[in-house]
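wait is this the right file?? whatever heres the structure
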């Protein structure tokens, strides 16, 4: 004996003596060895008589044993382990050993920490099962195997792994899986019960008090997994599946996300070496992005490069940059991204397969079930069911707050391939045309909620209402939400309608969007919308419609993308078209938009001349539309006069606008006139500020800001708030800083050129305050 340590006796006695001799508590030894306190207590009490060799090794190291003492401890542990199978004897343990760990495993720190916490404290209120689920290619099996190796010391009664072949045409049955698990515990073939329930009962009885780790890889569903789970006790089971296995109750869930960009680059570095990555750092980042940060794709790219040590990373980046060749490039030997997706795709029911591949035709980063239903030719309810099934299968990701879904970029490419293979161009075009018609009708109906001139229908055209009145947005708020959420989709529909010759539908949609566009001047897409509608008008041979939509285009160049040169070109083309067809209203608008473009180019006298000509042209018109246009032209003229150092004349011009608003315009709502009145008040406030009549300027600016906020017009409210901030700052008002700060944030969000002006005003105020 050494220092009183018995040479004989069971493992628990020896371990307790060695721990006491070292002066360690169970908690201290647990921390040093990475073995849970509960596992140590089970060993010392004799509940765990034969811990695994790896567990004994970490305990010996933590206790500081020499080689001879460590060997003695291992011998006492070996006595308690099940014996190998003989010809007629019990089965050998360890026949389901863990697969080899991956040496270059990367990231997943929080997920590993969650499992380690579960292993260290497997109390009665803690789940003994962790489900690792998610889309193909996330590295679920690699993570589970790596975690199992990390957790092994906490489970001295053994670690077992079983592939359930969930993606195979015939997955492993629970009955066959139980036979393998029981055999791994040493049960002879002849002693294994015949029925599944009896096998499950024996399995639970044998694992009830064992601190063992079970990895069930590649599960197909809950019915396959349920009978294999140990009963109450200290065992931990890790289940991997491409399905969510939402029906498994009281389980811990490990959600694996895509790698972050830097993690994907780190994985690539571990595969091919730091020298190659350092030599082409940007190419490595680009490669990670082209792989969509999907672990499988990054690994394939890395393995491909590893097999070609002289190939540059930039060469692979160039190949993968072409979407049509990306999936072809992501293969290395038997590793193929396309094959990983195909395994899941082939298992789907017919409707779900159709929904998945057709959804790849949707525009934008995400799509609604509505869009999916149109593309797949399914009812809305069936589309929702398919989307949820695909989400559970890890093939789509659902939005956290809205009923919308998105693809991983590589999976979208795979789904689009299946459209070409299974549907062909005729079916594809029919699906797109069906979706285009529906989307443009809905977009037109939604936009008309904001049209104050035509009371729900565009002038002329062939528009025939919302395609689904019962499901249509009710009121402005719902209409706004739909138009914003489906922006990419209805814009794609407008493109397709234009490109396939449905020009009247393009005109109707763009005309309906006119007022809505005013509320969203920060959307750069309006240039494309009105460019296409102006082109459709030209192709239809309508000079009047061409003048209207060229004017809208000039507005969008001026207000949305701040391109005055293109705005002037469009305004001049609109002016020519208006004069050709004798439309005085559009002539006035064209003169006004041209003046705005000239002003933005610094050509102030020319701009003033056009505005005066526009006001004269519109004054001769008798329609309500002409009065609204006249208000706009007068407000613009007054602003230009003020900026040219003529604030008195500017104030007089804006007072004239205010008088028109107060008099009212027949056939126009009070709500609409209130907006024009608010614009006039904003400019009156600015005129008074230019005259340094600060206290008089405050009230009209506050009134204007309140009106724009009530109308939910952020593109108008932001500049008005800045104007008010300037006045409050000049007055030394206590609200000045908060107003300027809010204005700066608003204008930055709107990408307004005035954001720099707001920042400068805020800085000047802070400097003045500090100086005082």
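ok assuming it is, sequence goes like this
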């Amino acid at each position: 004996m050494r220092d009183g340590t018995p040479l004989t006796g069971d493992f628990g006695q020896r371990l307790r003596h060695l721990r006491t001799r070292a002066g360690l508590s169970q908690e201290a030894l647990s921390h040093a060895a990475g073995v849970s306190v509960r596992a140590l207590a089970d060993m010392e009490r004799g509940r765990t008589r034969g811990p695994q060799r790896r567990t004994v090794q970490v305990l010996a190291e933590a206790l500081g044993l020499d080689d001879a003492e460590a060997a003695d401890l291992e011998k006492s542990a070996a006595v308690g382990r099940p014996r190998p199978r003989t010809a007629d004897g019990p089965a050998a343990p360890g026949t389901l050993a863990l697969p080899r760990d991956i040496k270059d495993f990367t990231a997943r720190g929080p997920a590993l920490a969650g499992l380690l916490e579960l292993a260290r404290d497997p109390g009665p209120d803690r789940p003994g099962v962790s489900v690792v689920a998610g889309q193909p290619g996330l590295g679920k099996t690699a993570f589970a195997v790596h975690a199992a190796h990390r957790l092994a010391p906490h489970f001295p009664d053994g670690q077992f792994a079983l592939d359930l072949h969930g993606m195979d045409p015939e997955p492993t049955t629970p009955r066959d899986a139980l036979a393998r698990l029981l055999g791994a515990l040493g049960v002879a073939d002849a002693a294994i019960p015949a029925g599944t329930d009896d096998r499950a009962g024996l399995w639970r009885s044998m694992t009830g008090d064992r601190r063992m780790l079970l990895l069930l890889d590649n599960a197909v569903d809950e019915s396959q997994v349920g009978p294999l789970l140990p009963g109450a006790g200290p065992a931990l089971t890790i289940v991997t599946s491409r399905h969510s296995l939402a029906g498994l109750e009281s389980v811990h869930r490990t959600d694996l996300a895509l790698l972050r960009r830097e993690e994907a680059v780190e994985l690539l570095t571990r595969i091919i070496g730091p020298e190659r990555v350092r030599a082409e750092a940007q190419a490595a980042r680009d490669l990670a992005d082209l792989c969509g940060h999907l672990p499988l794709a990054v690994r394939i790219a890395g393995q491909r490069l590893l097999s070609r040590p002289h190939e540059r990373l930039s060469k692979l980046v160039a190949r993968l940059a072409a979407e049509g060749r990306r999936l072809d490039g992501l293969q290395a030997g038997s590793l193929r991204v396309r094959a990983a997706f195909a395994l899941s795709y082939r298992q789907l029911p017919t409707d779900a397969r159709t929904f998945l591949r057709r959804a790849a035709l949707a525009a934008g980063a995400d799509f609604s079930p509505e869009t999916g239903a149109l593309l797949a030719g399914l009812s809305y309810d069936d589309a929702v069911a398919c989307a949820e099934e695909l989400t559970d299968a890890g093939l789509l990701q659902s939005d956290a707050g809205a009923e919308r879904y998105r693809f991983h970029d590589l999976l979208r490419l795979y789904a689009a391939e299946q459209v070409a293979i299974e549907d062909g161009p005729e079916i594809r075009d029919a699906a797109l045309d069906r979706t285009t018609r529906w989307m443009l009708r809905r977009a037109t109906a939604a936009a008309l909620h904001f049209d104050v001139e035509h009371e729900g229908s565009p002038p002329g055209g062939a528009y025939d209402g919302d395609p689904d009145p019962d499901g249509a947005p009710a009121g402005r708020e719902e209409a706004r939400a739909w138009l914003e959420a489906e922006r990419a989709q209805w814009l794609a529909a407008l493109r397709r309608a234009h490109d396939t010759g449905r020009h009247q539908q393009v005109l109707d949609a763009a005309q309906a969007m006119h007022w809505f566009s005013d509320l969203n001047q920060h959307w750069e897409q309006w240039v494309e919308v009105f460019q296409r509608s102006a082109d459709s008008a030209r192709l239809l041979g309508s000079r009047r419609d061409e003048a209207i939509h060229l004017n809208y285009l000039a507005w969008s160049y001026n207000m949305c993308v701040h391109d005055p040169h293109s705005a002037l070109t469009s305004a001049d083309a609109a002016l020519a078209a208006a004069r050709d067809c004798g439309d005085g209203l559009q002539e006035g608008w064209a003169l006004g938009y041209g003046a705005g473009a000239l002003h933005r180019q610094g050509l102030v006298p020319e701009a003033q001349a056009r505005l005066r000509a526009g006001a004269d042209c519109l004054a001769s018109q008798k329609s309500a539309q002409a009065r609204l246009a006249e208000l706009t032209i007068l407000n613009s003229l007054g602003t230009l006069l003020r900026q040219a150092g003529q604030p008195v004349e500017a104030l007089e011009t804006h007072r004239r606008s205010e008088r028109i608003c107060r008099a009212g315009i027949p056939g126009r709502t009070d709500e609409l006139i209130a907006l024009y009145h608010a614009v006039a008040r904003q400019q009156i406030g600015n005129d008074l500020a230019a005259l340094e009549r600060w206290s008089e300027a405050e009230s009209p600016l506050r009134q204007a800001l309140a009106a724009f906020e009530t109308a939910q017009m952020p593109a108008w409210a932001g500049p008005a708030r800045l104007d008010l901030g300037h006045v409050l700052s000049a007055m030394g008002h206590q609200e000045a800083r908060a107003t300027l700060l809010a204005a700066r944030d608003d204008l930055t969000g709107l990408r307004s050129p005035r954001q720099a002006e707001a920042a400068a005003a805020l800085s000047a105020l802070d400097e003045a305050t500090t100086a005082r």
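The radius of gyration is 36 Å. so i think its the right one actually
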